[in-house]
Amino acid sequence: MAYVYLLTNKRGTVLYTGSSSDLMRRVLEHKTGVYETAFTKKYRCYYLVWHEEHPTLSDARKKERQIKRWLREWKEKLISEMNPEWKDLSEGWYTEADLSPA
Prior knowledge:
Radius of gyration: 13 Å
Shape: globular
Number of helices: 5
């Protein structure tokens, strides 16, 4: 399985689209800032607000590329259909130790 996902910052002003074969690991990497120069670290996009499962990583990447071309309004609609309150869907996935910088 593979996933395409959307992250946002605390105020919901920035959206990031990504894909991964391991959603939990990838979201944790975003939350802990593993990649110093990453877009998500710079704009503090740590909140998972939408995700979709795909049979292969190739399929997920295809959907990721498609979503990246969408208007923001369309992305917001997609998020609101799954997650009307834009809550962090990864809440409860990690311990405090997981989220602590290494």
